User: Fold Carbohydrate kinase PfkB domain-containing protein from Arabidopsis thaliana.
Amino acid sequence: MSSCSDEAIPGQPIVLGCGQLCLDYLVTVASFPIPDQKIRGTSFKVQGGGNTGNALTCVARLGLPCRILAKVADDSHGRYMVEELESSGVDTSCCMSAKDGASHFNYVIVDNQTNTRTCIYTPGYPPLLPDDLTESLLLDVLDGVRVLYVNGRSREAELLLAQKAHSKNIPILINAEKKRTGLDELIDLADYAICSTNFPQEWTGAPSSPSALLSMLIRLPKLKFVIMTLGEHGCVMLERCSSEVSGSEEETDIDELHESLKQSTDFTSVLPVCNSSLVTRLTGNVTGRLVIVTAEKIPSSELIDTTGAGDAFTGALLYGLCTGMALEEMLTFASRVAACCCRGLGARTSLPYRTDPNLATFLGT
Assistant:
């Protein structure tokens, strides 16, 4: 793991992800335990995890070359996580090994009664630092890259990498789960943002989710779109548009636009549907459109675990961005991929391959 390989298929876009690798210990239970209770698990699995590793595993299974930049402990857990990624087709040759480190790990309790999961995270060490990123490594790891994926967990190193990517005109997608120290500098460089349900309002202080999405586009002029994920309720996206609108057109209130779009969205559909507003002038001199995407309705008999569904969604978006999918198609595709992930225990067990019949409509396989 000392030097970057050049194994990508010529002509195919490469996705680069930077972040932490984590080992997940997953156990399912009939219902979440109460304090001081002893219960039996119904199933158990040990599997690699972490946002970056999960998303890149998704990209690799969908058929695109991808590589990861991370620092892992030189212990049995670290080696296992790297080998697992390699077996899925992720290029790990730019990973660094820390001789005296300890691996990050998660305990994940999956509650079959409520279909929820609880994560208990234990951080490892040492972190990936800017001093680890030599100029030659940065050039090697960014070679041939179409999109860079970051999430701010190794923020100082990710910022240095993102600055280099920005200087080379490589688009950056950020996954913003929660406010972190130093995240502002990183998100300033992003072309695309995927956010948790609460992040837009927490970050902007806006009074509503739609107004928070608009505030993000106003504050981040480089941002082309921002997506807010809503779990079983799908997602909402606000896209910045370059299309001209009539100079006399009045500004549209984003909250009213969102409410109107909700009213015309078919939330009863079993499969994901995408409903888009017209391109309009919004408050703050932003021209854009709002998009609502519903989530696939998974039968209770098939819903196993939601761990990693957001990472699967992100991985599918990375695939769509690299392959030039139309926006509406990309969002419904990502929703289908996320639903596939929920049908197995762990973040990677049920991630689909590009030959999956559920994806034939999108990939023509």
In short: The longest strand covers residues 22-29. The radius of gyration is 20 Å. The longest helix spans residues 309-323. The domain at 14-19+50-98+127-350 is CATH 3.40.1190.20 (UDP-N-acetylmuramoyl-L-alanine:D-glutamate ligase).
